[in-house]
Amino acid sequence: MSSYLTLIKRCVSEAEKTDYIMPIWLPFLPAILAVVAAFLLMYGIITASALRGHGMGVAAIAGSVFLLIYGASVAVGIYVLYKFIARRNDHFKRTHKLYDAIVNLLKEKEGKSAEIIEMESIVYDMRSEETEKSAVLWVILTVLVGIVWFYVAHFLNKDFRKHELRERRLIGLINDVLKKHGAPGIIRFDEIIPDRSTILYLVLTVITLGLFALYWIYTLTKDPNEHFKQHKIVESQLLSYLETISVST
């Protein structure tokens, strides 16, 4: 068995760790907890006021519960932002290794053809432009300067979009080479992630007094999730076809 095929299998198996499919509800949990905390605090204050001189204990309990729930809200929000960035980094790093191994495996069969040269160029662009962004650094910056969140949302949307477009072209070239060597079918890689306008989303967020940001958060969760789900299908087919042509060598 080719060492490249072994590496491809390893990269495919690593998807369980790198391609984290986030529950759609999770990014909204911080807002829900914050609302619950505020409601309980207001209820405690109103109750304490009604009790007048006997309400200090109620107020203290309400304040403690508020801090506990609000603290949980902040912690979950930090975790979600960290995972948004970390799964981007992990997925890109894994697919760079995967495609590099695929190109080298096909080069063993195909030689330095036009398709191979273009594939090598695409993988080079991926490695050069899809570099790691420190999840810890961007979380800290967002905590310190809240407006940084919008830039994080921007690069998450745009990076996944560019990544997917490169992959579509790459898969098309891989299909061309596989067909020449007797692969039993065509691998379909759909364009799932839309081209989302950061400027438009910012304007809509301002106009709606922040409500549109909820949809923006939804896209940051959904788009990579759908991308990862498609990857699982595509990689399974890729591995099957690559094994087929390797056996026929």
Description:
By secondary structure, the protein is mainly α. It has a domain of 171 residues. 80% of the residues lie in helices and 0% in strands. The chain is built from 9 helices and no strands. The chain is elongated.
Question: Oligomeric status of the shown chains?
Answer: single chain
Which range best describes the helical content: under 10%, 10-25%, 25-40%, 40-55%, 55-70% or over 70%?
A: over 70%
Distance between the termini: 11 Å
Helix-and-strand structural type: mainly alpha
| Poorly predicted sequence stretches spanning 5 or more consecutive residues | none
User: Strand fraction band?
Assistant: under 5%
Rg, alpha carbons: 24 Å
pLDDT averaged over residues: 91
The tally of helices reads 9
What is the ordering of alpha helices and beta strands? HHHHHHHHH
Give a concise summary:
The chain is an all-alpha fold. The chain has helices at residues 3-13, 15-18, 29-51, 56-110, 114-129, 135-144, 148-180, 198-207, 212-247. The protein is elongated and about 85 Å long.
